Amino acid sequence: MNVLTDNFSTYGKGFLGTVELTVYASLLALVLGFLMASFRVAPVGSFRVFGTVWVAVLRNTPLTLLFFAVLLGLPRFGLVLPFKVFAVLALGCYTSAFICEALRSGINTVPKGQGEAARSLGMSFGQTLGTVILPQAFRSVIPPVGSNLIALAKNSAIAGAFSVTELLGTYKTLNELGYSIIWTFVWIALGYLIITLTISALFNYLEKRWGVAR
Predict the structure, then answer these.
(1) At what angle do helices 83-109 and 8-40 cross, to 10 degrees?
(2) Which of 206-209's residues contact partners 24+ apart within 8 Å by CB, and which partners?
(3) How far is CA 117 from CA 77, 98, 120, 125, 138, in A?
(4) Given this model, what pLDDT does residue 212 score?
(5) Quick one: average pLDDT of 148-175?
(6) What percentage of the chain reaches a pLDDT higher than 70?
(7) Stretch 18-28: mean pLDDT
């Protein structure tokens, strides 16, 4: 227990760092995921191609490699930002590809007649997608979206290797101070458990409230 009590501030900073990464990257992933899903079902061919390439590249690229590309590659092109911002970009863009596919699978469950009825009423593609298709699709994909955000929270541990303050990185400091590595990781694991269970509880609530009844 003294591993936690003696280093509560260290754990606290790491925990809050992981929470911040998770929250900001999740928001970015949701926005980009919705946008890319819209592109993938858009009537404009160039949009569909862009969405397809986005998903294919990011889903088949190791996240660690993406971190290297963003955190070390973008500054070479003159884009200099705090490492935490780069980490949010890497996590958010990577996860957006999976959210896009989850949402697209939900769009495919909406009967085609819904879209045809909306268009017959004179609604544009954007109006049909935003007011008719996506609200129904989201109800059916709440569980997979939640699972992707839980994976994002755990993937944020990679950011510690790039000088970003997060929970897993606290083991380095505590190891140098001579604390038991086993108990160090026990408290780290508990911190991740708190974050992931919170996300799970949130999406369980959303599923009970808005999910499709089975």
Answers:
(1) 40
(2) 206/142, 206/146, 207/142, 207/143, 207/146
(3) 48, 29, 5, 12, 19
(4) 57
(5) 83
(6) 88
(7) 94
Query: 184: which 2 tokens?
Result: 């160090």
Residue 96 and residue 136: Cα distance in Å, rounded? 19
Report pLDDT digits (tens) over 115-147. 777 777 777 777 777 777 777 777 788 889 999
Contact 17, 165 (CB under 8 A): yes
Query: Helix, strand or coil for residue 141?
Result: coil
Q: Are 36 and 51 in contact (CB under 8 A)?
A: yes
Among the residue ranges 17-31, 94-108, 113-127, 130-144, the one predicted with the least confidence is: 113-127
Return all residues near 89 (Cβ < 8 A) that are at least 6 apart. 28, 70
First to last CA, the chain: 45
Q: Name the nearest CA neighbour of 100 among 153, 141, 69.
A: 141
CA distance 103 to 93: 15
Q: Check: CB of residue 29 under 8 Å from CB of residue 176.
A: no
Closest by CA position to 197, among listed 165, 156, 154: 154
